[in-house]
Amino acid sequence: MIDWPRRLMAAAAGRWLLCAVLALGLHGPAFAAPTDDAKAQTIVHMLDYVSVDYPEFVQDGKILNAEEFQEQREFATQVIELLGQLPSQPAQPALLQQAKTLLERIDAKAPGDEVSTLATALRNGVIQAWRVSVAPRKAPDVAAGGKLFAEHCAACHGAQGRGDGQLAKGMEPAPSNFHDEARMRQRSLYGLYNTITLGVDGTSMRAFSELSEADRWALTFFAAGLRADSDTVAKGAAAWRRGEGKTVFDGLRPLVTKAPGEVAQAGSDLDAVRAYLTQEPQAVQSAAPAPLDFSRAKLDEAAQAYARGDREGARRLAIAAYLEGFELVEAALDNVDAALRTETEREMMALRSAIGDGKPAEAVTAQVDKIKALLDRADEKLGSGNLSTTAAFVSSLLILLREGLEAILVLAAIIAFVVKTGRRDALRYIHFGWMGAVVLGAATWAVASYVISISGADREVTEGVTALLAAVMLLYVGWWLHSRSSAQAWNKFIREQVDTALGKRTLWAMAGISFLAVYRELFEVILFYETLWAQAGSEGHGAVLGGMAAGALLLVIIGGAILRYGVRLPIGPFFAVTGGLLAVMAVVFVGNGVAALQEAGVLDATAVRFISLPLLGIHPTAQGLGLQVVTVLLIVTGLWLNRKRATA
Predict the structure, then answer these.
(1) DSSP calls for 19-67
(2) How far apart are CA 70 and CA 584, in angstroms?
(3) Distance from C-alpha of 80 to C-alpha of 104, rounded to nearest angstrom
(4) What is the pLDDT of residues 357-407, one digit of tens each?
(5) Range of the domain at 244
(6) Are residues 375 and 438 in the same domain?
(7) Looking at the chain, which terminus has fewer C-beta neighbours within 10 angstroms, N or C?
(8) Closest by Cα among 159, 176, 16 to 81
């Protein structure tokens, strides 16, 4: 059963510790350290309750309930302590001062509206500074929430949520009435979600941790929408169709973090829009900005942040403009105007460099305007409507072919090797590797889609790190193969027996390459196809599937050709060619890995005048080209050492 707290925690230290452990979500040993995210979530949770409960117990400078007043002080004190434990942020000193001011105003028995406003502002500041996850990943299923409410909540709160359920009699405090307009207007959806998630110590409201995050959000939206009548919802739907509220509720995040009273006066069109969206949250998601519109908005915000002197914030926004916007249409644009895609990517990187170098604000604004002009051209190339059937097919084909080529070359080469040496038993290591990558890739996509939000930066870091790890393994296996390319080395290899020389370390290295080569491509492929699917529209879905099938067939043909003709080579040339191919792929992986980390903002990017061939891992930056040169020198050194050993 769901209950709004009138008593959150007892003032006694033992009960506070119990509630703190519950709020922090600790599932390990009693003294396990809470994560930074858990601390930030707890701060937000406590401030949400202070903003709602304080006005009820302190009025006209008088304390109406001493015990409740002490609890509000305890919350404010704990907020100060936890804020000091969070990772350093530019806004942290100001937020700490706000928290101290909040405690001072509580001690002064300040008016309820003033304390509520201070707590709300501080809560929003914490959410923004530490990027607290406060919104559902996708629009909740409100109908499913109704079923959950009937199953878990109606016994106490009543079928209509009026607090009159069969078990409500004698409960202290009484179950909440979700039709209580005055109280519900002070409560955000996120506050209700936290109550469902964490429960309330000292009341009949328990934590519903056994429910999935999606179910808890569904339950939240259903309960919050109970008090809205059909006329209000219809009024809100009409206003939303006219475009009202779309700048305020531009995503699920503002819908769940703002209390109704923060948004608009009761009865206004905007208040009706909020009521409509609470019952129909999918309308918010369907109205989300297009990727290029998102990029434009973030670029403007970056320029404004830089003008205010917030260089780190501007850099973060510039990265988001690329990763969360432009990159989503990169593959489609590459198929219709590769030069425009390259130019836009280069100018967005130049913007990040200008911000990092501390260029004048006018120069940064001019660079933003230049990029926005390129985005306008990209919009024209892609078209404002759905992609044509032909464009959808070609885009789908090239996405899979381009992204899968690296993986299929590596897999085909190492499979050909074990077949050539008669070690078919080693195939299972390779197959375990790529199949594990497929399973983990699918799991990663599912987690990103339904559990947590994986940002573009996180995605690029994953791709960059796996690419560099794969490069290291490719260098090792390539060197191992080349060291056996001479007749003498091959004869020694035979004498030592294949099953002995092809030891566990090499087998697991091959399995690791198989895994990394496939996994690093999968998540990006899924992302590109999600965007392409939306762009193609229902009429183009068949073309997208057809392109995927054609691309998969071509990859199979390429891999089959390497297997068929590779094993026919004499053993010496076969080892040399295969080792050389893996060495080349290592150079490619190094270039693409550095580029991914640069796009995520982990590594600096210094542009240089050089050709750009992403398919070969060549990106015109000093850092990427420099590490590729080092990789080539390592390969040459390995060849020289192998030759010297063979001669000796």
Answers:
(1) HHHHHHT--S-TTPPPPHHHHHHHHHHHHHHHHHHHHHHEETTEES-HH
(2) 68
(3) 12
(4) 899 999 999 999 999 999 988 888 776 444 567 767 877 787 787 677 767
(5) 142-286
(6) no
(7) C
(8) 16
